Description:
Neuraminidase
Amino acid sequence: MQIKPSIFSIGLLSLLIVSSVSYAQNDSKAKEEKTVTTRLKPVIQSTPKPLRPDILIEKFADVQANAVRLLIHPVSGDFYYTTFEGGVFHLTKKDGSLVSEKIISLEDHGINKLQGAVFAGSELFLCGNTIENNNRGTRGKLVRFSITPKNKPSLTVVFNTEPYGLNATTWDHGWNALEMSPDGRYIFVNSGSRTGHGEIQDDKGVYPNARDNALTTKIFRIPVDAQNLVLPNDSDKLKSAGYLYAEGIRNAYDMAFDLSNNLFAVVNSSDYDHSEDMFWVRQGRHYGFPWIMGGIENPQQYPDFMPDPKKDPFLNAASHGMLMKYFRNDPDFPKVPEGLKFNPGVQNLGPDANEYRGHSGKILDGDNTGVSISTFTAHSSPLGLVFDTKRKLSNEFKGDGFVLRNTIGTKSSLMKPFTDQGRDLLHLDMSYDKLSDNYFVKTTRIVDSFNNPTDAVLLGNSLYIIEYDAKVGSIWKVTLPGGSKKEKK
């Protein structure tokens, strides 16, 4: 059974990402929005706790402030990580401990907000955004560096986009997630929304009537050997060139391929009480944004919408969108293009991360109602998606997926009504349903009490998880049950 689209209409079928990794502009613009910050505050470090006895957790390394992505060099096996401000660090051993050696900086690549990183052999790809028009505009940028033991990293520009407008909010998600195709021919690049839910964000009139555009809310596929491309702000041109892969995705901050080479993405939704989607991403498909998120319709698309938390329980009066009046009557909101079909998210069967707000306005649990949701509890910010593609885990986990949640209900006014849980590691046991041509997932919490986890890599039966912090971050090694020789046969 699937949750119905919304309390407003059943005519259509069917990651706000945490501020630490959202693409924002400079500090002066962020200060204009006093209701939120663009950086996570330092937190009291806690030790992650396994929720089953056969999982071992140990500290692997301390890392620099504002760490976002964690990587393993496919050739050397060494660990690398990146920071939001543009640094790339190599973990090396010194006096028996792992220390961070900075090998690439902002000056080397010019990406002011570095959010995406992935290796292809010895080639390191980095993506993010640059600043244009006196910090009122931006370009997406993808570069690659050759990382070899003896040579200084050398830069090649893969693409820049045409410039487009930033805005005065913390919702400008930018270019962030990267993933290599299994055959090594393409790199997939996510560009998140520049809006919360499709509203006008004109940067105080600098970009009149600007909503999202051809270069946002999409996943692109770029040939690995491409150089010096310019991606136009034109959907038809992007499609004809073969670069535009999938549309209508608010912010897929992480992507991963499974054992069968299916691409999945985890997505952060808006301040409305939409669930957080996980999509099976297929070429040429549209996934609903800005009209549907989390299987729930966006009410702002209807001309008679008048936001009122007293009448609409999906609106949180304390949310950023309400406080800044971004939920508004919007009669010029774009209409759904005729004939456009939306692809629903992966349906979560529980037993965890499947709380949702029902049509009555009450918070419900899918375990009790028999309802599947698309896909995770609202406002939980899923990140760090990985799959056991090498089949190194025990039979219970072999070939399965894992994902982190960055938000925790006890510290989030938006997530708190749903649950106190969060900042945990979820096991994803996925199955394909031929009738719906979609995936279903059984979701189980296996570790909790992380501190702002942002990314993960799986090596053998060890999952390495990096945490963002404004002072000193951490990498944790989570050892999962491995497959025995008999199981591997």
